[in-house]
Amino acid sequence: MARYLLSVHTVEGQSRPPMTPEQMQELMRKIGALEEEMKATNALVYSGRLTGPEDAAVVSVVDGEVLTTDGPFAEAKEHLGGFYIVNANGIEEALSWGRKTSACIGSPIEVRPFAEM
């Protein structure tokens, strides 16, 4: 069984239409149901939602000097907003989780296998 990253990207300046409290509650219910399905099949390894790129910092060491800068590593309009790490028996199963996740949250999902070491 291999592990796959299902990444959720957000686009800077692009926001979803406002949701009513009922719509937000329904979205959270759908996400909860998806995660329960992932847990029930032993697919879910970990999931997390990230804060915005304005909270990011980059640390690098060059010639023994430590440099810390505010902001994301790459200057881009798209940013990683959250992710799932799942176990899957191949790319087709991982893509199936990607489809379910995309349908649930209404955003594209990048599916990428972890490199085998």
Q: How would you describe this protein?
A:
This protein has 117 residues and is an alpha+beta fold. It has a single domain (2-113), classed as Alpha-Beta Plaits (2-Layer Sandwich), CATH 3.30.70. 30% of the residues lie in helices and 38% in strands. The chain has two helices and six strands; from the N terminus they run E-H-E-E-E-E-H-E. It has helices at 21-40, 91-105, and strands spanning 2-11, 44-49, 57-62, 65-70, 78-88, 109-113. Strands 2-5-1-6 form a four-stranded antiparallel sheet. Strands 3-4 form a two-stranded antiparallel ribbon. A hairpin with a 2-residue loop joins strand 3 and strand 4. The relative contact order is 0.32.
Descriptive key words:
117 residues, single chain, 30% helix, two-stranded antiparallel ribbon, alpha+beta, four-stranded antiparallel beta sheet, 2 helices, Alpha-Beta Plaits
Largest sheet at a glance?
4 strands, antiparallel
Structural class: alpha+beta
At CATH level 2, the architecture is 2-Layer Sandwich
Low-confidence stretches: none
The CATH superfamily is identified as: Dimeric alpha+beta barrel
Head-to-tail CA distance between termini: 14 Å
Summarize the amount of helix as a percent range. 25-40%
Order of secondary-structure elements: EHEEEEHE
Main-sheet strand order equals 2-5-1-6
